[in-house]
Design brief:
The protein is of the alpha+beta class and 186 residues long. It has helices at residues 10-20, 22-30, 37-64, 81-98, 101-120, 128-132; strands at residues 68-71, 74-77, 136-141, 147-152, 162-169, 172-175. A six-stranded mixed β-sheet has the order 1-5-6-4-3-2, with no helix packed on it.
């Protein structure tokens, strides 16, 4: 029997984190910010792997998972999540280009700490790549007044609407797309 709820493995969460940091990693690699060829190519590789794996996870793995129907009691968009996460590394990025090498390595330590918080607190929803792929974050209130954050490609979630959710762990879920019925299948 397959479980409806699951928490992605550490490897999955690391690759989603890499995708969240992809814009920064790409910029740092292009600008050769650490002036180390190995570091430069490692950042580029992590960027590509994170983006590729996140797209695969969202569009191939999630649709195949068991979903739980959930009736929307209330849904509020939380549009600023990806921008807030993006800001945690954009501001330090601009500082890094004018800073001496020791400050750049301090930035790397800062980014590792942010990454640890991202992984520890399951902040999948604060991912700029998912926003670029058309996902919105909704704070969904259930009938029992429980709350779940939903990643959805829908523009609006209406009260009373029933949606299929794939739980990513605890209080974060992805709305599984509805399957289209083709003429051949009908």
């Amino acid at each position: 029997m397959r479980r409806a709820a699951f928490r992605p493995s550490l490897a999955v969460r690391l690759l989603m984190l890499a995708a969240a940091y992809a814009p920064l990693l790409l910029l740092l690699a292009i600008l050769d910010s650490f002036q180390q060829p190995v570091v430069r190519w490692a950042m580029a590789a992590v960027c590509v792997a994170g983006v590729g794996f996140t797209v695969l996870f969202i569009f191939v793995v999630i649709p195949r998972r068991n979903a739980t129907p959930e009736q929307v009691y209330e849904a509020k968009p939380r549009e600023g999540e990806a921008l807030r996460f993006f800001a945690t590394y954009v501001v330090p990025f601009f500082v890094s280009e004018t800073a001496p090498p020791t400050h750049r390595w301090a930035l790397a330590v800062y980014l590792v700490l942010i990454a640890a918080l991202y992984l520890r607190n399951d902040l999948y929803f604060a991912n700029p790549l998912l926003a670029l792929l058309g996902f919105r974050v909704f704070e969904l209130t259930r009938r029992d007044r429980g709350m779940v954050l939903v990643l959805s490609r829908a523009w609006h979630l209406a009260p009373g609407q029933v949606i299929d959710l794939v739980l990513l762990g605890g209080w974060i879920a992805v709305q599984r797309p509805t399957r289209r019925i083709t003429r051949e299948a009908a």
